[in-house]
Amino acid sequence: MLHCLTMLQILSFTMMIVVLAPCKGWQLPENQPCAADHVTCADNIQCIVGSLRCNGVRDCADSSDEDPEMCRNFTCYPGRVKCADNVECISKSYRCDGYPDCFDSSDEDPEMCRNFTCYPGGVKCANNVECISKSYHCDGDRDCADNSDEDPEMCKNQPCAAGRVKCADNVHCVIGWLRCNGVPNCADSSDEDPEMCRNFTCYPGRVKCADNVECIFTSYHCDGDRDCADSSDEDPEMCKNQPCAADHVKCANNVQCVSARFRCDGDPDCADNSDEDPEMCSQERK
Questions:
Q1: What is the mean pLDDT of residues 237-243?
Q2: N or C: fewer beta carbons within 10 Å in the chain?
Q3: CB–CB of 150/140 below 8 Å?
Q4: What separation, in Å, do the N-terminal and C-terminal C-alpha atoms of the chain show?
Q5: Whole-angstrom Cα distance, residue 61 to residue 185?
Q6: What pTM, to 2 d.p., does this model score?
């Protein structure tokens, strides 16, 4: 967002409305510099954040922030490094991650990457070129080009990252709170095994469905959408005695709960349309 602004004052009756508009197309007022962390483009009109210079993206309308001659003499901001072309600056953490960020792809040069030490929390793939996050190991998604992060033999001897648990196949790791949520995340579906789930304690903020298998968010109870496979989260008798979640209110039917901010917004959210009741809404607007 541009920080150099012009001000238009519009006087209507006794109320003054101040409208702020970006300065693009407007000359900077005399002796008024850009904000402290901004710089002026070559046209002396537009201001941009200084750290956006030489990042490969044109932010100045005249493209002066990406002028090759200027960028060759430009020192990258802390945490950034020059590409081989000595023009573009990229984040240090983007090197050797398997995705070219430099226009010349020099941040993924195999020779450079073989001698590159991954940042903390990262590990090399078997090809000794790519770095991936340790937490991506054995998660069922291929992140290394050579697929070494999902090698079954390696994964059987690899402990899961913090917050993850092994599937029954002893290969894949899934996020712990995804167990027993009604959606299989393990390739062998062991995270949704009914016997395991019946003895599983839901994570905070979640409750069991009537089947004692599936866990859903507490806030999903009585919201008018079926989240439990057995529909127990929308059982009318249960919902009549169930208080709504914080910031939710009961509809007139005393069954469904809707977000309080959805009342009187012009769109019915209650099945009985009571959240858009004209009389109630007129009182709320007072």
A1: 92
A2: C
A3: yes
A4: 37
A5: 47
A6: 0.61
Q: Residue 109's pLDDT is what?
A: 97
Q: What gap in Å lies between CA 9 and CA 113, rounded to an integer? A: 57
Q: 250 pairs with which residues across the strands?
A: 257
Q: What is the pLDDT of residues 176-212, one digit of tens each?
A: 999 999 999 999 999 999 999 999 999 999 999 999 9
Cα–chain center distance at 113: 28
Tell me how far apart the alpha carbons of residues 270 and 106 are, in angstroms, rounded to a whole number: 56
Write down the residue that tokens 């007139």 correspond to.
Answer: 252
Question: Token pair for residue 209?
Answer: 């469905």
Phi, psi (degrees; rounded to nearest 5) at 191:
-75, -10
- Cα separation, 147 vs 211, whole angstroms: 39
> CB–CB of 149/138 below 8 Å?
yes
The amino acid present at 32, given as its one-letter code, is Q
